[in-house]
Write a structure and sequence with these properties.
alpha/beta; 3-stranded parallel β-sheet; 4-stranded parallel β-sheet; 229 residues; Aspartate/glutamate racemase family protein; Rossmann fold; Asp/Glu_racemase_AS_2; 11 helices; 7 strands
Length: 229
């Protein structure tokens, strides 16, 4: 079994799910009392959020690289960035650390392609929705992506920062997310990517008839496949 290095704390709420899903995935395949071999570097998210507010991605990149090098020196054989947003810098980080990064968008695109879908909506932080690091992977797989409008993007980002990232799950926020999802369905979306690790804490498969792609679970499953491959 390969040792995985997790870079989390962005936020700690969803990093817990990564730890749980990966260990459960390994145990499902190996049985007994088997669990994953994991190393974790967990950030104080306030430091990352400060960089985001200043649009200082260079500082975030250096922090993530330093964390990854530390994990590598401790025996990690691959890196998992436990947040969709951090994949904005995944290629640069991968090159500087010298270990493979298991990319959340690549893994998600593969799952969507297997489902045979051609058009999906993407929800996430403003960095995920407004940059192309995620949608480029979808395009490469022949999948069309659509994103929320300006007002919806502002709402989603604000609730991720002020509510979901703190474990605050409000019914009125959930209702608004479902309203956005239903609009996408009317516009032809065959599925919706929950492209921020906190969104699945709020939106569940039973909440809507459209296929939901939980990137936390998809990313964790890809990590299990790597670890046991």
């Amino acid at each position: 079994m390969k040792t995985l290095g997790l870079i989390g704390g962005t936020s700690w709420v969803s990093t817990i799910d990564y730890y749980r899903f990966i260990n459960q995935g390994v145990n499902d395949k190996l049985g007994g009392v088997n669990a994953a071999q994991l190393l974790l570097h967990s950030f104080n998210y306030a430091d990352i959020a400060k960089n985001h507010a200043a649009n200082d991605w260079a500082k975030t990149t250096q922090m993530v690289v330093d964390a990854g090098i530390g994990l590598k020196s401790s025996g990690a054989e691959a890196i998992l960035l436990c947040a969709n947003t951090l994949h904005l810098i995944a290629e640069e980080v991968e090159a500087k650390i010298g270990l493979p990064i298991i990319h959340v968008a690549t893994a998600t695109a593969q799952v969507i392609k297997k489902e045979g879908l051609k058009k999906v909506a993407l929800l996430g932080t403003k960095f995920t929705m407004e940059n192309t690091f995620f949608t480029d992977k979808l395009t490469e797989a022949g999948i069309e992506s659509i994103i929320p409008n300006d007002t919806e993007r502002a709402f989603i980002h604000q609730t991720l920062m002020d509510e979901l990232g703190k474990g605050i799950l409000l019914p009125e926020t959930k209702a608004e997310y479902l309203k956005i999802i239903n609009r996408f369905v009317q516009e032809g979306a065959e599925g919706v990517i929950l492209g921020c690790t906190e969104i699945p804490l709020l939106i569940k498969p039973g909440d809507t008839d459209v296929i939901l792609f939980d990137t936390t679970q998809i990313h964790s499953a890809a990590a299990v496949e790597f670890a046991l491959g």
